[in-house]
Amino acid sequence: MKQKLSYIVIAILCALQFSSFQLIEDLAGEIQSVRNEINDVEQTLNNNINNIYTDVDAKLAEKASIIHDVDVIFGAFDSDTLIIPITFVVQPKQVTDDMMVSLAFADETILLSKEDTTYSGTKAFALTGDEIFPTIIIEEDGVQRITQDNGLRLYGLVDELIPRLYVNMLSSGSVISYTSDSVKYQQNGKFFIDGDLQDFASVRYVTYIDAEKINEVEIDLNEYNMGEYICPVDETFELTNGQIFATYVVAIDKFGLIHQYPLEYYVAGTDEYISSSYDIVRIFAPNGDIIYDTTAMYREEYLAAYGTELEIISP
Description:
Elements (H helix, E strand, L loop, with lengths): L1 H63 L2 E8 L8 E10 L7 E5 L4 E3 L1 E3 L2 E9 L8 E6 L2 E5 L9 H5 L3 E7 L2 E5 L3 E6 L2 E6 L4 E10 L2 E7 L9 E3 L4 E6 L3 E10 L4 E10 L5 E3 L6 E3 L5 E4 L2 H11 L9
Antiparallel strand pairs: 1-2, 2-6, 3-4, 3-7, 5-6, 7-8, 9-12, 10-11, 11-16, 12-15, 13-14, 13-17, 17-18, 18-19, 18-20, 20-21
């Protein structure tokens, strides 16, 4: 009888212990849930405080500013001369009859013409990636006040005006066989194209071996499938060790500028292979002059990997 009672007591204790474990586990879960809620509230409060500080700083800056409004108006881009006129408009907060407003650029200062309460002036710029950020000079009764306004800041005319594609190799070609002095390279794979597709007159896929153009295929942008394209060429090339196999996407935009996007670069018989990144591009004027070039990173990556220079072919 005592032994049976002991079993009952042990069973009750085990049940109580299991129940305690369950309660502790539930309590731990509730505590963690409360902690998460507290963290969320703290994050929301911090974000709100940061937004308040940002708004206050913006309002203080606006109150301290002597400029009411600015504007930038682009003229017609000349693709032959690569020149574009840009009109800058400045409206001070207070305007008097004798007030003069000028804009100081890196190479010259221009006096703006007044119309009602606004001042404006036009300056021609060459198409480059250089930043344009003029200083505003307001002169009245022989006293100059100098300021800048981010509304007049242009981080580069190429980025402001020129349409861009974003090209990247998704899966490359491959070596399918090799001997002691040659390899067979299968040209196939997939690549990605996105961007201002409507602003390009043509897009081509171009293959070179040792800087000699082997083939050139027009890419049908109507076959756009979430940016993914099957390589339009599926051929096998026998390459002698040391020969360079390279592919590019070459596109002509609405201004007649030529965009070159490297896709892949392979030196036969070696491990030297590099594929493209989204922001790698060279842009050429119709006469062949390079007006924009971000391939330095592409070349530096190759140099760091293999210790040799990467030769990018001009289209």
